[in-house]
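Issue 218. Parser rejects a valid record. Input:
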Amino acid sequence: MSTVSRQMLGELIRWAHSPCITIYLPLDPRHPDIGADRVTLKDLVRDARRQLRTASDLRSPDIDELLAPAEALLAAERWPLGCRGYAIFAAPGLSLQLQLEVDVPLLSVVADRFVVTPLVAAMEHDDRFHVLAISQNRVRFLRGDRTGLVDVPVPGLPASRADALWYEHHERLRNVHGGSHQGTDRTIGIVHGSPSAHDLRKDQLLRFFQVVDEKLRRVLRDETAPLFVAGVDYELAIYREANRFPHLAGLLDIGNPERLSTDQLHERVWPAVAGVLDSPRRELLDRVEQSATPLTSTRAILTACRERRVAALLVAPNRLEWGRLDAVDGHPVHDAGDVDLVSLVIGEALDQGADLCQLAPGELKGDPAVAAVARY
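Output the parser choked on:
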């Protein structure tokens, strides 16, 4: 499946050679029907061909060449399973086909610019994280993202508490030493006791976790991805005392993780991890909501972009807004000569280095298609 980088998004929206053909084909991976999907794609290609004949003076061979990527997909014997949508971009000097794991709208448009707004949902995001799944009898260190976890070997990482503290042998001792004499036949006994069982267990766990922390910090020395420690609540509190890694992001009480498979562990930790990873985006939403004059219209944001005032952009991937550069407002239905104004905003924001995040339906008042956080 394809992921979309900022560079790819920028190159598409800045492509200067028209006509630009954009085709999006949504698929249902749960109920694949390649026959029906082929019919839908054939209709989209036919519509693109009609628009090309109307909007340009291209000859039929040139039109056929532009539509070759879509025709090739139509002719393919098999389509990949699990794909939720295709995106096809074609223009003089460019041909690109993307298999996407995100929802896309049904769309076939010929314009002076590509429509890139739906690709925001497929953008690369730094959702890397690490998990330390720890108990007294098993220690695992894993690297993960939204798709799953993989085990990562750590040199010297103890497999258990017994492995880390093998050299220690504790016994509860009670020693009675001779004390001072009182009278002729009485002696005061001075009793020394070892720590209680509770204190001893806590001290052992702390030393065990200090060993684990030391080994982890050697491999995480230059790492900035957040670390989550998963285990039992009581032990997690002690691990916090031992931790010296600066990017510890959360202690996850999931019960004893010893018998959990990698997939089960990911299922347990991901909801909490996702909330932490999403916190920067939530902060941007809060800033928009708290602004006295929120930037939530394409026109206002285009102006702010050209004044280089946009620090971050939030985009609803399936909300397109059609219009012309000389018009005041956009509209939801594409007319001949229109471009997607949200795509233009994305291009302007990327040019000035603004952050780009996805906006979900209903997250902001008025449910805008796009919103921006201003630098000033």
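Fixed in the parser; the record now loads. Confidence is low (pLDDT under 50) at residues 169-181, 186-191.
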